[in-house]
Amino acid sequence: MTARIAWLRGLCLLAPVTFAGCSSGKILPDGEIEPPISVDGIRHNPEQYIGDRVRLAAQVAESHGLRIFTVKDDDPVLKEQMLVVTRRPIAVLLGDEKTTLQAGDQILISGVIRPGDVADVEAELGVDLDTKLENRFRGKPILVASELVLTDERVSDTPDTLTPR
Questions:
Q1: pLDDT confidence of 31, banded at 50, 70, 90?
Q2: Cα angle at 25 between 41 and 92, to 5 degrees?
Q3: Which pLDDT band holds residue 104 (cuts at 50, 70, 90)?
Q4: Cβ neighbour number for residue 161 with a 10 Å cutoff
Q5: Within a 10 A sphere around the Cβ of 4, how many other Cβ atoms?
Q6: Is the predicted pLDDT of residue 151 greater than 70, yes or no?
Q7: In contact, 103 and 63? CB cutoff 8 Å
Q8: Span of 15-19, 82-86, 90-94, 117-121 with lowest mean pLDDT
Q9: Is 24 exposed, middle or buried (0-12, 13-18, 19+ CB in 10 A)?
Q10: Does residue 109 contact residue 69 with C-beta atoms inside 8 Å?
Q11: Residue 39 region, left (φ>0) first, then alpha (ψ -120 to 50), else beta?
Q12: SS3 state of residue 136
């Protein structure tokens, strides 16, 4: 088993335990990884994470092509989102798991938090965001992802009508 597969399996095992109440998510200099952070954690203290490699546990909000998507936090009140741009196509990062992301997918992302300079990220990674998306996330932290792991197949936004209440 390669080190990468072992690492990914370890993330999958940790993900269900660490979704709630996580506050850090930084990848430390010695290679150890703290529990995943949330979109809220980054959005409320972006200066604490800019330039750092982190793990983010979140739910996919929208897919915008082969290398761009947004994630949302599980907070029902704030409904904050973050832009994620991948270094390689999503299908390559997901491997055999899945070829695309859809709204509701639970995901664990490793990457570097960048300041909200959308033009710099576009130029560096060779992507082109549409104007509406660019304006929506200008000045907000952007996660440049290098690894993706699906942690759950999907979370539905519709209520479960089959379960008695």
A1: low
A2: 105
A3: very high
A4: 7
A5: 10
A6: yes
A7: yes
A8: 15-19
A9: middle
A10: no
A11: alpha
A12: helix
